[in-house]
Protein 1
Amino acid sequence: MAASLATNPGVRSAIGLLEAWLDSQLAYRGWPGLSIGILHDQELIWARGFGQASLERAEAATPDTLYRIASITKLFTSTAIMQLRDAGKLRLDDRLTDHLGWFKIGQSHPDAPPITIEHLLTHTAGLPRELGFPYWTDSNFPTAEDARRRLPEQSTALPTETSWKYSNLGLALAGEVVATVAGQPFDQYVSERVLKPLGMARTFVTTPPKDAPGLATGYTRRLPTGARTETPFTDGRWITPAANMTTSVTDLARFAMLQFRDGAAGGAQILRGSTLREMHRPHWVEPDWVAGWGLGFRLMREGGRTLVGHGGRLRGYRTQLQLCPAERIGVIVMINAEDGEPLVIASRFFEWVAPAIARATAPPTKDGLPAGWERYVGKYRSPGADTQVLVLDGALVLIDPSVPNPTLGITRLRPVAEHTFRMETTEGYASNGELVVFELNAAGRVCRVKIGENYTEPVPDWK
């Protein structure tokens, strides 16, 4: 599937456009290196490196190059929380203090609801963005002892549940919950329960050595003089659950593919499908309704799609994982420069390449027409509504022709048994998932149609 899809003429030409653009971006922006991968369902259909993983070593970037992925780590922490939730060891509405008895912070709004685990995953706890140290400036990251000493000296920034406010502190605390509830260090739990089952053998929770084979060198942004230098190499220490993991495009693709799977948990299915969908659903929606948060995942509406994923920013690295679960399409971008723009690249992918993949993987339209479909086509009426069954884009569909725009509420009819169809629609007021049964008379003509629990009857004309 991977080879045939990547060589599909439409997909190949779209990828060619992306490649040409990326070559130019590296040339004119002066990014040292970039690695990218494109996924469809359970396949990494195309991956490539551009530029250099290390300028000093003259080492080319490849899909297997290792990058510090910073805040994409939060998705692994959220996954661990959901595994423990599914195992019955915690609840999302548990108070943080139910599991971290030592947690204390000043309350700037004493009447606000208590902080829960779900608040941490949706960034709605009102916590400060960071533990009270300037580690993004001096690269001196705190220890667990530093955290327990400093937290009581800080205060919440906002009342709980009034707005989302991104917080590395919050996800570091979620990592503490994982360690406490699981009874083992955070890095050990994630390595054993998440990375190993997924086959992510070249992904590291703790900081790898600076000279680890295949690790990209991180570089500063390009200054007005044109200069770009190597960044300090840091260890995230206590904020590891928020921003410290290291991986490659090919390894992270295994985690990305999990998001497109369904079924019961077990083996490489480290979370059941219903839990993955729960994580991808909106749990906090911004006032403009175009973005929000799932459980750990950043949600965005772009180009008519709902995208889920996360970005990462660490000294010397910029990364992005962006997925469309509805189409089972995704992209991973990793750049070893502080002025890299992986989210812009992800947007170009969804604009240029994703539509070509969707066209190449769309099922043949002829499969939408059952044998003898002509007998079902016609006009129907019930006491409350008119209905019309017709063929549209090669499929049998049901519409309400009386509304201003019937195309906004099209119901596709999928055959499941003789004269019986299952309704598929995005219109929530309709009977999505329920059955349509065409009842035939002795002459083989439709005499009545059962739609869900109600009936409608054929009419020769709208009279």
Protein 2
Amino acid sequence: MDNSNSDALVFFGATGDLAYKQIFPALQALVKRHSLNIPIIGVAKAGWTLDQLKARARDSIGQHGGVDETEFAKLSALLQYVDGDYSEPGTYTQLRQALGSAQRPLHYLAIPPGVFAEVAQGLAKSGCAKDARVVVEKPFGRDLASAQSLQCILHENFPEPAIFRIDHFLGKEPVQNILYTRFANSFLEPLWNRTHIASVQITMAENFGVQGRGAFYEEAGAIRDVIQNHLFQVLACLAMDPPTGEATDAIRHEKARILRAVRPLGRGDIVRGQFQGYRQEAGVAADSQVETFAAVRLFVDTWRWADVPFYIRAGKCLPVTATEVVVSFKRPPRETFAETAPGVVNRFRLRLSPDVVIAIGMRVKLQGERMEGEDAELIALHQPGGEMSPYERLLGDAMRGDQSLFASEDAIEAQWKIVEQVLGAVTPVHFYDQNTWGPEEARALIADPGGWLNPKSGAV
């Protein structure tokens, strides 16, 4: 497999929700910012025409960023459409004809994992997989066994360097900023270890529910939906060692290495919750045991992180929508100033969304004669504007053959191994009121003196 650019883009599921919300806006951005000028072929079974696909693309872009008439005209001229069943050989015959002289297509499977096998085999039998790349969407399996089965299916038809497992979280500018901040600033490295760090908290809070996707959420739950993938990747960015060399897979190797060192979760390491009212959602079972909130306690068994707890939680119908990391440092070995209520002292806070914030918390002296202090933060705030969307970035990388921001096979398997013993209803689900920080039982999971550190609304 060479590093030459893909000369065609095929996306299966062209009439679906993901294409509408993410792919079409990313395609216009790629045309505008990167001068994308290759055949773009949508494939679906909807009984549509090419004009209907173009109308869908216009509506999608209008709802998600705005139509640039000049760039949309260029995109529209590149669009083609193949209508057919994924199980029918004729669909792939049509696709091969639509590809024309293209020899290195990129196939994006924006479809349920259950039809990956059919599509991969159809591409291979028709010759469309030769010298091609393939992008697959999460969820990559439902557990370790199903993930390994999917790996085998893909490897039957594509070599590993041609497989791109997309997790859009890895394309987010703030997530990349974790790595950059860590490894571009030398003052952090001497402190970034068990000698100085007491604990790490990662919170992904959403102040909305399942938004009409109850049937989907019944199959996923918070652990499969965001913890096993998105938040474990954030953990890897925080805990990994510096990558060695400049190879595109150097970062992926370090992430996989650190994820393999994470101790598998036991039943005592997790609290699952469900917001009041979830069972009344359409598509949700009346006695559902699916978690809409989960909190876990993890340990990374390496010299750098031995005995440092990593606390991760994610939930819906919480008070705010924000994703935030807080690294708490240990207190000084003795109290120099005899304050009756000593403060937190030092924290390093990274807000990943909705705004990008880097904050350093420290103890500063209050005005007056007495040696007493208060907790304060030095804050660097960046308001997003003009950045590439995750899908624009990731699709562009995939067409160039750059796997740096895509999950590797061994990392995905390591992530499933961490949660393997706590998937499903193996622990009780506790109810919590909407607009609260989850069930009370989650408080007992964390040993930090200050408990869970809740993100505030707004930038700070």
Protein 3
Amino acid sequence: MNTLSPRRAVWLVMRRELNTRLRTKAFLIGTAVMLLLLLGYVGFQASLASSSSLGKVGLTGQSIGLAQQLTAAAEADGQRIQTVAVTDNSGLSKVESGDLDALVSGPSGQLHVDYKSDLDSGLRRVLDHVAQQEVLDGELAKGGAIPSEVMARVANTHVDTKAMTPEPADHTQRLVIGLITSLLLYFSILTYGMMVAQGVVEEKSSRVVEILLSSVRPWQLLFGKVLGIGLVGLVQLAIIVSVGAVAASITGVFTLSGFATGALLWALVWYLLGFLLYATVYGALGSLVSRQDDTQAVVSPLNIVLVVGFLAGFNLVVQAPNGAATKILSLVPLLSPILMPARIATGAAAGWEIVLSLVLTVAMIALLTFIGGKIYANSVLRVGSRIKLKEALRG
């Protein structure tokens, strides 16, 4: 007979899962591998940033004569640049279509740059350097100039820039963080959700569950297991995110600004919601079978929902984070934990969308917890052949 209070029973099961799984080789090796992959990605991005191409730049009008100076300045900065002379009026349309990354015009000391939405910081620096050098050469050629006045004028010389379709200065950084967040949440929910299902099957097949249920109720055992494994996943996710954020900041891949910190905090919130949403269902489905070999078969429909939702949502976030389809899918509770944090990171999610998705997700968690708990309670003690879902729901 159960003599433990519900809170005490859930706590004991949760602590058992934490103590057991945090010390396993699988957790340590898995965390180490994911850290190595993340650090490798950060290092790769840092190497690209340090020796990347500044793209294809069109030169028109008086700026055509600066091709050699631009190439030399880019090489001195450790970059590569391709210049193209534009002798007609097609320059702006080529920038709009993506054939050119930027169009430079105007006299050497007053360069004007047109670009589509984002101007590479390295290209801006190279153009500033060329403009400043031209001003310096002009002043020195005059003779009799006061050195301090010359240097002040040179320092104040910058290219004039204009975006055709302006985006936030950190748009690319926001998108990268959003996509990485979506990817981490997808793998975490899938991995630890499967771990819940496998843990249920393992306890059922070994008859350990019969001993446990002599002290706790079925819903307490399932809820404690979900919380314990969920916290293990949260610990791993927190380690990966923290190390990745520090490494990215040190290498300059991105700066840990206010929006980045907020995006990471939202990722942790949505991980907890997403895991609670899926884990109870994973546990309930796992209770339908008594062998590990059958686990994949019963959870495959849930895995398909996750995979299809992630692939579709990932592409939508890349192409149109503020599009109608992306908005609708991010409000669907089963997809919100993966898509909404990515949209929040890109700045595309409105406040009412975030609140609505939270409310809908919490409501779905409550519903699935009730249904999953019922399936688990009716199935976990029944060994042998696979139990049909309808039969488990009826009891």
